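Consider the following input, taken from an annotated entry for DUF1249 domain-containing protein (Halopseudomonas sabulinigri).
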Amino acid sequence: MNALRKPRYRVDLIGLQALCETNYWRLLKLMPAMHEQDERRITLDAGDGQPQALQMRVLERCRYTSTLLLAHERNHEWVTPPSMEVRLYHDAGLAEVVAAYNSRRFRGVYPYPNEQMLQPDEKYQLNQFLGEWLGYCQRHGQSAQPFSFVQ
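Applying the prediction step yields:
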């Protein structure tokens, strides 16, 4: 009897690029002065009375790229809040997760199962999570500096 095989995962390059482009514009909206400003803190209201915030810090600034560290600040005894490094490609208008979970440089496809327990589409999932996280911050965030749209 042949076991049913799941079809091999194939990278949706157009979908990944569209996601990275959307994340780029979300980041610019949350931190419009990133070319001059080194940090930005956005206070979040989750409705549970617990203080939390998104801390955005520029790690590296080059002519065509910038690298940001995004860290969610909230005290939990049982879970580590998410944090990730995101590289922004200003010439292409893309933002890509380059580090998360103490890992760097994610491949487009992973064999499954693997020793790191990464999903076949781990890179896509991390960038999708970034988009959801930034969208949440846009809807529920408060900042001493106004949010604006950069053109």
